[in-house]
Every structure is written in structure tokens, then in C-alpha cells.
Write a structure and sequence with these properties.
Blueprint: H1 2-16, H2 18-38, H3 44-51, H4 55-83, H5 85-104, H6 109-137, H7 143-171, H8 173-192, H9 211-216, H10 218-247, H11 252-280, H12 283-299, H13 306-317, H14 319-322, H15 325-338, H16 343-371, H17 375-395, H18 400-403, H19 406-416
Helix pairs in contact: 2-6, 2-7, 3-4, 4-5, 4-6, 4-16, 5-6, 5-8, 6-16, 7-8, 7-11, 7-15, 10-13, 10-15, 10-16, 10-17, 11-13, 12-13, 12-17, 15-16, 16-17
Length: 422
């Protein structure tokens, strides 16, 4: 009975926590956006057949979304600094509503490219505003856990997207995407009811640190590089592994199941990894994630059976790859906060790093594989991860409690100084 009371009290406290409602909202927004991102995968063959689009034209359509994230991230950061993160999310949702509804009724590949680009721009608004919102309201000692929860929701959204795309092909792209556009309007109405987060107290001098000084920080550069590397890895493996599995005899259902199970594992470990970062710092998860992912990337070319390749793929894309996403996020946000840089600028860096990695990852891996073998791009990614371990170890990414000590403060202060010239 006492245990039941304690659980009810914990649930009531969670609901009364102002951050709880915001985190729930952002989870839904990122889940929705991720579903829209992955919904196009089963629709691409439909448009290729219906519009007579060539393979390069379909490739442009697939790449239009991440390409739109880049200007969307920059514009989203600009709007957030002037109008707030809530309005930034609203702009992204309204942009999504119009472009998604129009996408369902598009009759030319150029129109679809433009609408998909606008959806990518909306993604930049939603992620920039949403992540900044969570970081602003999350207690510092639970920031990693809350970031892990919203990232987990986004991963779950990527599982729902292909189902939605399949329904669009079966029932008609116009009606299905029109309903999705209406849902986006509903989410905008829900977002409008949430209050703007209170301004965060500055921990740095009153004069804001310029963006160029932010880029001088080795920790921010490292965190951005880790995000870019993961996005490039996901782009490369999402291109190479389905083709390799099919070549070895795996059915389409099996290929889909591989990515489904990997995403479920990734979703499950996101929050625990965030809690580990909160308690022990980013160094251990980063080192473990990079090391295991490097080993598994180098192992992927070896199996000559689709069963073995499916097992290795699930393990590689599940836990280890996720293990350094959330630590990389917290490295950027924590360092930016200590340097006095607005959180929206930090999330802009995250979005840009992810967009650039995704834009270059898939085509680079595909072209390199076609010129050589699948092993070359996978081994190249593995080698890059091993080389990245050195700056991770040298960065001494300890727990937050240690970083607040005088010795750590001196280390952070040194990180702000310009690099010595030769």
C-alpha cells in the first residue's frame, strides 16, 4: 500500500513539474517530424513509377529534405532569438502542414522536390526550437536523461513513418498526406497553449561570446564532429546494408525487420545513456560507443550469410551507435551554456552538423562502394571513429559535478582562449 502511494505521488509530482509537460510536447513534435522524414521511403518507388522519374531524379527527391534542414536551422535560430522557441516550433509546424498537404497532390518531380525541401526547412525549425525548449526547462542534473527521452521518441517516429508511407501508396497520397497536414495544424494549436520558457541566467560575462569564439572551443567542435559522424554513418549504412542484405538473399521483410529491431534497441537505450551521462559524464559512453561501433563497422563486410549480416547490423545500429549521440549533444549544450552562448545557437550547430553529415554520408558511401566494394566506405568509417577516440580522451569529458570544481573551471576557461599561433 505504501509502495502504491509512493508511485502515485511520484506520478503526480511528474505531472506537476513544469518541465514534464514541455518534454511530453517536444517528444510528440519530434516523433511527428521523424515520421514525416521516413514516410517518403516507401513512396519513392511509387513516384518513380507514376511520374516516370529516373534514379538520379529520385535521389534528388530523397536528398531534398536534409538539404532543407540547413537553411531551416539557420532561419530557426534567427527567429528563436527574436520571437522565442515556442513561436519557432509554431512556424515549423505550419510550414509542415502546408508543404505535406501539397506534397500529397504534387504532379511533377520538381514540385515534389520543392515541397520536400520546405519540409526539411520545417524540420530545422522544429528541432531547433524543440531541443532548445527542452534544454531550457530541464534541470541541469537531469538534462541528459530528458534529451535521451526526446531522442528516443524521434527514433520511434522513424518506425512509424514507413507505415504511413505504405498507407499513402495504398489509399492515395492526396488523402493521407492531407490528414497528416491537419494533424500538423492540431499540433501547432497544442504548442501555442504552452508558455515560453523563462530566460536562462547567464553564467558568462554580460557580453555574449561571438559565434567565431564558439567555434574556437575544442569541445564544441568535437561534439559537432561526433554528430556529423553519426549522421554520415547512418546515411551510409542505410544505403549499403539493404543492398548487401538483398544481394545475400534476404527478403524485403527481413531487411525492414533489421532496421526496425535496431531502432527499437536504440530507442530503449536512449534514456539510460542519458542518465549515465548525467551521473558520470560523457567520456565513458563516448569511448565505449565509438570503440564498439568502429569494430562493428569493420565487421559488417565479413559475413557472407544474410543471417549473420542481419545480426551484426542490428547490434551495430542499435546500442553502440546511439551510445555517443546523447553525450555529444550534452557536450555541445553544456559548453555553450558555460561560454554564455544562447542555447538556440547550440541547437543550430547540432542541426547543421546532422544535416551536413546526412547529405554527404549516403552519396559518398554509394559512390565509393560502386567504384570499389562495400568494405571500403565501411572500413573508412571505422578508421575515422578510431581516430576520433584520441580527441575524445584528451577532452577529459568528466561528470557535471566535477566540471563545477575550480580545477575544471580553469580547464573550461582555457578552452575559451584562442589557439596559440605558430
Amino acid at each position: 500500500m505504501c509502495l502504491l502511494r509512493s508511485r502515485l505521488h511520484a506520478a503526480r509530482t511528474s505531472r506537476e513539474d513544469p518541465a514534464h509537460g514541455t518534454v511530453v510536447l517536444v517528444r510528440v513534435l519530434l516523433l511527428f517530424e521523424s515520421a514525416m522524414y521516413s514516410a517518403v521511403t516507401p513512396v519513392l518507388p511509387h513516384y518513380a513509377h507514376a511520374l516516370g522519374a529516373s534514379k538520379p531524379a529520385v535521389g534528388v527527391l530523397a536528398g531534398a529534405y536534409p538539404a532543407g534542414i540547413i537553411p531551416g536551422s539557420l532561419l530557426g535560430a534567427w527567429i528563436a532569438t527574436r520571437a522565442g522557441v515556442r513561436r519557432t516550433c509554431l512556424v515549423g509546424l505550419l510550414l509542415f502542414a502546408v508543404s505535406i498537404a501539397g506534397f500529397g497532390f504534387g504532379t511533377s518531380i520538381v514540385t515534389l522536390d520543392a515541397l520536400r525541401f520546405l519540409q526539411g526547412a520545417g524540420c530545422g525549425f522544429i528541432w531547433g526550437g524543440g531541443l532548445t525548449w527542452v534544454i531550457a526547462v530541464a534541470p541541469r542534473e537531469r538534462r541528459g536523461e530528458m534529451l535521451g527521452s526526446v531522442i528516443g521518441a524521434a527514433i520511434f517516429g522513424t518506425l512509424l513513418g514507413p507505415i504511413l508511407g505504405t498507407l499513402a501508396v495504398a489509399l492515395g497520397t492526396g488523402p493521407v498526406f492531407a490528414v497528416v497536414g491537419a494533424i500538423s495544424f492540431g499540433l501547432a494549436a497544442w504548442t501555442a497553449r504552452h508558455p515560453e520558457p523563462a530566460p536562462q541566467p547567464r553564467t558568462a560575462p554580460e557580453t555574449p561570446t561571438p559565434l567565431r569564439d564558439m567555434l574556437r572551443s575544442s569541445r564544441i567542435r568535437l561534439g559537432s564532429w561526433l554528430i556529423l559522424l553519426e549522421a554520415a554513418t547512418i546515411g551510409a549504412t542505410s544505403t549499403l546494408l539493404p543492398l548487401r542484405l538483398a544481394h545475400l538473399g534476404a527478403a524485403s521483410v527481413v531487411i525492414g525487420a533489421v532496421f526496425l529491431v535496431a531502432s527499437l534497441i536504440s530507442m530503449a537505450v536512449s534514456a539510460p545513456i542519458g542518465r549515465t551521462v548525467d551521473r558520470r559524464g560523457a567520456a565513458v559512453p563516448l569511448c565505449i560507443g565509438l570503440t564498439l561501433t568502429a569494430i562493428l563497422m569493420a565487421t559488417l563486410p565479413l559475413p557472407h550469410s544474410w543471417v549473420l549480416l542481419a545480426i551484426v547490423s542490428v547490434v551495430a545500429l542499435g546500442g553502440p551507435l546511439t551510445a555517443y549521440t546523447i553525450p555529444a549533444l550534452t557536450v555541445i549544450t553544456d559548453t555553450s551554456e558555460r561560454l554564455g552562448i544562447p542555447l538556440v545557437v547550440a541547437t543550430m550547430m547540432l542541426n547543421l552538423a546532422w544535416a551536413v553529415g546526412e547529405v554527404i554520408g549516403a552519396p559518398a558511401a554509394a559512390n565509393l562502394s560502386q567504384a570499389t566494394t562495400d568494405a571500403v566506405p565501411l572500413l573508412a568509417l571505422s578508421a575515422i571513429m578510431v581516430l576520433t577516440l584520441r580527441p575524445v580522451i584528451r577532452a577529459r569529458l568528466t561528470s557535471r559535478s566535477h566540471e563545477s570544481s575550480p580545477r575544471a573551471a580553469g580547464s573550461l576557461a582555457a578552452d575559451q582562449l584562442p589557439a596559440p599561433t605558430r
